[in-house]
Amino acid sequence: MKIKVGVIFGGESVEHEVSVISALQAIDNIDRKKYDVIPIYISKNKVWFTGSFLLDIENYKDLSNIEKNCKEVMLCKKDNDFCLVNTRGILNKVVDTIDVAFPIVHGQNVEDGTLVGFLDTIGIPYVGSCVLGASLGQDKVVLKQVLRNASIPVVDYEWFYDIDFVNNKEDILKRIKKMGYPVVVKPASLGSSVGINFVSSEKLIEDAINEAIEYDKKIIVEKAVDNLIEVNCSVVGNYEMQESSVIEEVISDNSILTYEDKYVGGEKSKMPSKGMVNTSRIIPANIDKGLYKKIEEVSKDVFKVLNLSGICRIDYLINKKTKEFYVNEPNTIPGSLSFYLWEPKGKSYKTLLDDLITLGVKEYKNNKKKICSFDTNILKNFNRSSGIKK
Length: 390
Description:
The protein is an alpha+beta fold. The chain folds into three domains: 3-126, Rossmann fold, CATH 3.40.50; 156-223, Dna Ligase, domain 1, CATH 3.30.1490.20; 226-364, ATP-grasp fold, B domain (D-amino Acid Aminotransferase, Chain A, domain 1, 2-Layer Sandwich), CATH 3.30.470.20. Helix content is 30%, strand content 25%. The chain has helices spanning 16-29, 64-69, 114-122, 131-138, 140-149, 162-167, 169-179, 205-213, 259-264, 289-305, 349-368; strands at residues 3-10, 35-42, 48-50, 71-78, 81-86, 94-98, 100-103, 157-161, 183-187, 197-199, 218-223, 228-237, 242-250, 281-282, 310-319, 325-331. The strands form three sheets. The chain has a seven-stranded mixed beta sheet with strand order 6-5-4-3-2-1-7, sandwiched between helices. A five-stranded antiparallel beta sheet has the order 14-13-12-15-16. Strand 12 (228-237) and strand 13 (242-250) form a beta hairpin. The longest helix is centred in the C-terminal third of the chain and has 20 residues, at 349-368.
């Protein structure tokens, strides 16, 4: 009997469309001899849908068509099955069931641990990192605090909330100036280079911060790396084992790799985006062999320190003259699932997806061995008048 995999994508995120691209790429490559695939789309207003209409990327050009052509559902546990239940009917009819959830989502409200937290409450096996790993990967400030504590190199930075900038603007600007320009201003919890700006001088900093505040209440300002090379390394595994991919060097005409670099492509292109595959890159990265090996090993360390599972892509900043390198950020559900970093190692996209689903089931079984609750009920002899006696 085939395993039924529910691929969940979309969500209320500025990376919504990127998630659609990544998910449909994966669905096209999942081994249909082993798995039945059920697409589960979360709309921008957080409504869940399923149906074969979701399998054609052309149908996303007008998102209003999805509601007309798909079944609105919710995911719940019913009679020991994980069911997609029709929410529009009075009888809550079961539309389909799934055995494993495969979230392929990006950004706030989904990739940040929100979605897997919901899956944990249902108890369904799922592919990818737990709530803690997902949330650490999403918050760039807490991420750097954790990595720095683990002696993993990160760039110098300042961070603050939007209300801090309103109330203590001058103090924040002084701290940034002391750190030294140029800097990179980022919303703390977004990905895909949304809301990020390279700032070369003090006169441009306020505009960049105000733009970042439009996307997030928490802002991080990082010291820019001189003589910059950006490289990425993917890791597959769990807390027991980690395997690193080849390392790519990403190419951009801009000071930082932009959303357009990653997903839009050339202005004249009429083809739909291929996601992160669209990015210009050198594989393997043209860096010193010793540095290459070091980044492979540090990537595994980052994966383990951050409680990650499944697949991750870890992005690095390198000063090509000094050979100093810094962890920029992990992508706990990377665009295109970074399959292109595994193909040079002989692992096809189909095999990668099979490995990830297998890891998800293994993690579920490992967690089931741990004590999460007690069979005894302390409320059985509860006396309201006396309360609970310890």
